[in-house]
Amino acid sequence: MCINTYAPHVEISLDNLLANVKQIRSIISSSTDIIAVVKDNSYGCGSIQIAQTLEKYGDIRFFAVARPEEAFALRSNGINSEILVLGRVAQKQLERCIKLNIILTLNDLDDIPLWTASGHIIKFHCNIDTAMHRMGLLPHEIISLVNAIKNNSNLKLDGVFTHLAKADEPGTKSVAVQREKFFSCINLLKENSINISHIHYGNSAGLMDFPMDGCTLVRPGIALYGCNPDPSRTFRLDLKPVLSLKGVVAKIKQVPAGTPLSYGGNYVTKNETHIATVTLGYAHGLPRFLGNCGNLIINGKMYGIAGNVTMDYCMVDAGSISEMKVGDEVVAIGFQGDNKIMADDIAKIGKTISYEILCNISNAIERSYYFRNSLICHKTSEIY
């Protein structure tokens, strides 16, 4: 058997991605469009292939990334749609952003002198900090923005946005409070004859639980990839998982009762049994917290992870009579037979969110992309 057969791999369903886009469109008005968040390698799914699919088949013409390097990669791979960089852009990156027609975000008034000194027209969105206190201008700073725009003809405000901090909490009143602050800032801009083309505040949790009044765009991230903003809650969209994480059985051995497994030996076999070693570990994105409490699917059957997850491997107790064989497919995230394990399921065990589970899947793992039930692309490099 070729050694590459043993490598863990990721499978991406582009059909499920487009199904999720359709679900999102079903709950927003026809006058509201989508800005697809493809930052951080599209939450582990591969931003280039995801963006290419959304642009060609999903009728999406606007993308958001975290850093300018991500925008450069999209442009280099044929993405012609609008791209918004949500984070700050350093001076050495500014010229390339302008050349590639990339939209900047104003997160700090200190960026304005840099922009005006460039001598170029700067198209940007303003991030208004209404609750997160992470990035963006505070509401009282908007008047300074107004004055800067009036005094600098090269500053072109194309949009404004804010980020909902507690939209995933049941019964939250925070969205109404944030909306009030946000639209007060927008009214101030309008009172000063500053026109705004795009308004967006609807992240995945927000657009699924609240009306998107006053928005020209919604800004889904995790919902595109088939996960819920809060894995412990049920949301109204029928989302389909986009990413599957798989490995293979690399070795099977028979051990006696009383055999300790893995680092620390905190799993001890109760009977004579077969132990299967699987080519999935925390280096690939299988969380270490799944030791002795997580599951894997092999031959359509659910098996508990036995002992601590190690860097490149984990183990399962296959029982005294095992039909497993070396080379069998192992599913850590995804479907096999009648069983499934979702990123949300793993997140609940670790008391975290599926964003973290997906983003922690190593970019060094091979990714295979499926569209209309056929393999269309295979990526092996660290930049997708």
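Above is the first protein from milestone M3; the second protein from the same milestone is given next.
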Amino acid sequence: MALTGIQIFKYLSKKNCGECGVPTCLAFAMNLAAGKAELEKCPYITEEAKQALAEASAPPIRTVQIGASELAKKIGGELVMFRHEKRFENPPILAVLISEEMSDQDVDGRIQRFKSVRFVRIGLKLNADMIAVRANNPDKMKSLVEKAMSAPDALIMVMSENVEALKVGAQAAADRKPLVYAITPDNLGQLKDFIKEKKFPVVAKAKGLNELADLTQKLNEAQIQDIVLDSSAKSIKEMFEHQVVIRRLALLNKFRPLGYPTVAPVFELSSDPLTQTLHAATFISKYSGVIVLSDIQGEILFPLLLARLNVYTDPQRPMVTEPGVYDFSNPDAKSPTLVTSNFSLTYFIVSGEIENSRVPCRLVVVDTEGLSVMTAWAAGKFSGDLVGIYIKKLGLPEKLQTKKFVIPGLAAAISGELEEELGSTCEVLIGPREASHIPAYLKEHFSTRA
């Protein structure tokens, strides 16, 4: 039976230290009771309290880890229905399918694209996460799993209606702790001992939510708890409805039999790649833990990776770019230096315009705690002394022959203070107010190396 906030409060340290993210232990206890916090956030919780509060403090949706060691990724563990309430915790895993029906050329092509289709954004490396291997022939399953594991950072999911093929595939990928798809009411007796012994995460698949809840309860009785749900939906409408209902039952009704992350095999809903992309985007938002596509061309994967990045960032914290120096068009010591804030949108707009100019230069990104230039200047986080101190910390005045630093036109007011901080050997120039004018500005003033 769930405990109230007051009951949970009795087990806490009552230090009111605020280290858990809320100001008082009572507020933390209320969040625990509402399923909006995790017990591990309290640094002073005792083992006795952990045992007593384990059920009350468990996330309403279980956190399931897929993969081993540094490749491991977590899904589930969610605490809210909507991102603006707090944040979404664990991004969904994006998978590409290979199967025994495909030719060797098709299989090799998908694996090669998994390895090569990679992107970098805001200093983050973005790529697909998993190769899903589907085969009913045990020998073919083993061969395909071995091919999939040639991708060194691929999580593995083995999919089959044949129990023996599932076991062979899971054993072949044992070092990567594969996701086994699927235990059903029909094969439960044949697979439960194997899953329990190997401790692999498993997909529970049944027809509809009632049968699925019955299946997870039987798995729990067999001490299998790392479960991912598949409700066997056959249309986008049905799959969407099931995702939302499962989430609501788990979070709002604390219905433990459906308190697990889900899988969305969108390749089963359509054979058209663009339609699959739309379906996958739907389930990034609502609310899948694993999404399986039939292929991952760059134009398909990139928008999905960006959607996942945007949905699974903290809405209360701006997206930021790593502070530092970024080079464009191979600058040398005679190239000019531009300065901007580390708000990611500002960085991408400014860097894009610099690239378009094709003028060799470098861009200093100053830590403004994710604020744009104008906002950071108004808040005192983009002042002449702070920018100057950071530029000197990077050692640029000593390294560069062309000691010209171009600041945004919106921050023109800091030019005198910055020039004073950098010293008489450096020149501070006031650049355009709008990023779209950067190419013309650079070409006019720095089209050839000074």
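Note on the second protein: Residues 236-251 form the longest helix (16 residues).
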